[in-house]
Amino acid sequence: MANPIRLLILLSDNSSERMDLSRVPDTVEELIEQVKESCKVAGGIRLQYKDVDFGGTFVNLNSTSMIKDLTTIKVIPSATETLILEFVESDLDTSSISTHTDDTVILSSSSSEKLRTEPWPKEFNIPQFSFETEGQLEKGNAEYTKDQTRLTPTSKMLSDILERLAEKIFSYKAYLSDADLSDVAEALTRKHPCLRQ
């Protein structure tokens, strides 16, 4: 019979849980499911463990063989990519469109395929934004139609737009080509011309 193990699960900087297991799970995926159930964590996560060989640095957990009694495990929410778009005069100039991620998420091809069930569309469909953002865009589009006045989005509005676009983009693929970014920028400015710059 395997010895029981005790884990310290760090959920955030100021929240942690003790987790007692009868044995070390066979796979990281099994451990993730147990952590999510025990600690009431929703959504996608990955785990890191405190590696004493490297001075207590947290290292990505790729195998449960690294788990021992009294191991400290850190829960990392799966990050979606944040897309930063800068709009340009020319519809064909994509030189100022770029992507930026705060965290790198490495997906195996099998899990990546499960997340993305649809191919990249011929015409990118801009998602619905928050009620407040949609209202501001509607007003901005009316002003743009009337006298070509461009809308300068607030940081909250820009954050909403980029977050919703990133979610939609990530449903198709994790890494975009310049042509894909151009498709998104063109679709956004076609639907909301007030964002053209």
Give a structural overview:
The protein is α+β, with helices and mostly antiparallel strands. The protein has two domains: 5-77, Ubiquitin-like (UB roll) (Roll); 82-195, no CATH class. 34% of the residues lie in helices and 20% in strands. It has helices at 28-39, 109-115, 131-147, 155-170, 178-191, and strands at residues 5-12, 15-21, 45-51, 57-60, 71-77, 82-84, 98-100. It has a five-stranded mixed beta sheet, with helices on one face. The longest helix is centred in the last third of the chain and has 17 residues, at 131-147.
**Beta-strand fraction estimate:** 15-25%
Write down the Rg: 22 Å
Strand order of the largest sheet: 2-1-5-3-4
* Principal-axes shape call: elongated
- How far apart the termini lie comes to 67 Å
Number of strands: 7
Strand count, sense and barrel status of the largest sheet are: 5 strands, mixed
Low-confidence stretches: 90-101, 107-114
The helicity comes to: 25-40%
Query: On the 0-100 scale, what is the average pLDDT?
Result: 81
Total of domains: 2
How do the helices and strands follow one another from N- to C-terminus? EEHEEEEEHHHH
Count of individual helical segments: 5
Structural class: alpha+beta
